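Sharing a chain and its predicted structure for anyone who wants a worked example. Both blocks are below, sequence first, C-alpha cells second.
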Amino acid sequence: MCQYKGASCRRKDYKRKLCKDHFVKYVRTLLRKTIRALYLGAEKAFGAIDHTGLGYVTQDAFLQSYVAQRVPLTSEEINEYFFLENVYKDGDRSLIYDKFKNLFFPHLTMAGDEPEKKI
C-alpha cells in the first residue's frame, strides 16, 4: 500500500513505498524545491545546467548537474521520473528552456501547473 505523507493510498507500491502517481509528485516536488533553493530564477537555473550554451539540456547533463547532486534522490529515481513524466521523449533527447520552465517553475508560466499551496 502506498504511504504518501502518512496517509495510506489503496494503490500498489511502486518505489519508496509510494504508488506511481505519488512517486512522481514526490520527485517533482523535491526537484522543484532544490532548483528554487539553488537558483534565483528559471533563466539562471537553466543556464547553470546548460553550461555549454547549446540551448537545451540533455538527460545526461541534468544527471551530472549540481541539482542532481544536491537533491536527495538517486539518478535512477530521477531517470524514472523523467520516463514517467515523458520529459525526454523517444525522438526528443533534449529539454528546451520553455519546457524546463514549465516543468520546474510553473508559477512563472500561464500554462503551467498551479503552484502548490503551503499549509
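Comments welcome. Strands lie at 56-58, 94-96.
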